[in-house]
Design brief:
By secondary structure, the chain is of the alpha/beta class. The chain contains five helices and five strands, in the order βαβαβαβαβα. It is globular and about 45 Å long. The protein starts with a strand and ends with a helix.
């Protein structure tokens, strides 16, 4: 079993990365293979709605999308994380998800029944909308999203500020614990 975490933050080592790595730490501790992927420094072009992906299970745009998409397909699920940028997810994250969703849905719903969900962080507000924005993507792709003790959000602006949000960290840890539990149930493991 494998879960990947994809950070849509352009900040390496920032709060989004900290939250995602917190989740992966819990999953590792439960015997789940994990991998962290950062979109920082990568080029992910926006979807052009050309529908070429409906003829083949890949996107024809030439950038850093395809290796990440392949890892999404090969995993049992994934967590995506984004800081809030003016009330929504980062453009890089949405470009990745828009294109991945197009390829998946045009080729038999390739993400159907994978496990995962979103994580968001902001200085003050916007986490709920961004969380909902990302959650809707998981839902339309037929994925299974476990709950937690609250929404998977946290507060922080400067690097490591999120570590001061004890409830946020606890929520992310509970979310990851529920992912591990669910994966083991799906795979009939105790």
């Amino acid at each position: 079993m494998k879960i990947i975490a994809i950070s849509g933050s352009p900040r390496v080592g920032g709060n989004t990365e900290i939250l995602l790595k917190t989740a992966l730490e819990v999953l590792d501790g439960k015997g789940i293979e994990t991998e962290f992927i950062s979109l920082a420094g990568k080029s992910i072009l926006p979807c052009t709605a050309c529908t070429a992906c409906s003829k083949q299970a890949r996107c024809i745009l030439k950038d850093d999308f395809d290796p990440i998409f392949r890892k999404m397909l090969e995993s049992d699920g994934f967590i995506v994380g984004s800081p809030v940028y003016f009330g929504s997810a980062t453009p890089e994250m949405m470009a990745l998800l828009d294109r991945a969703g197009y390829v998946s849905r045009h080729n038999g719903n390739l993400f159907n029944r994978k496990v995962g969900g979103p994580v968001t962080v902001a200085r003050r507000v916007g986490q709920n909308f961004t969380f909902a924005q990302l959650l809707m993507w998981f839902m339309i792709n037929g994925m299974i999203v476990p709950g937690s003790s609250y929404w998977n959000i946290a507060f922080g602006r400067e690097k490591e500020d999120v570590l001061k949000d004890e409830e946020g960290i606890r929520t992310i840890r509970n979310f990851a614990d529920n992912i591990a539990w669910l994966l083991k149930k799906i795979h009939d493991e105790p």
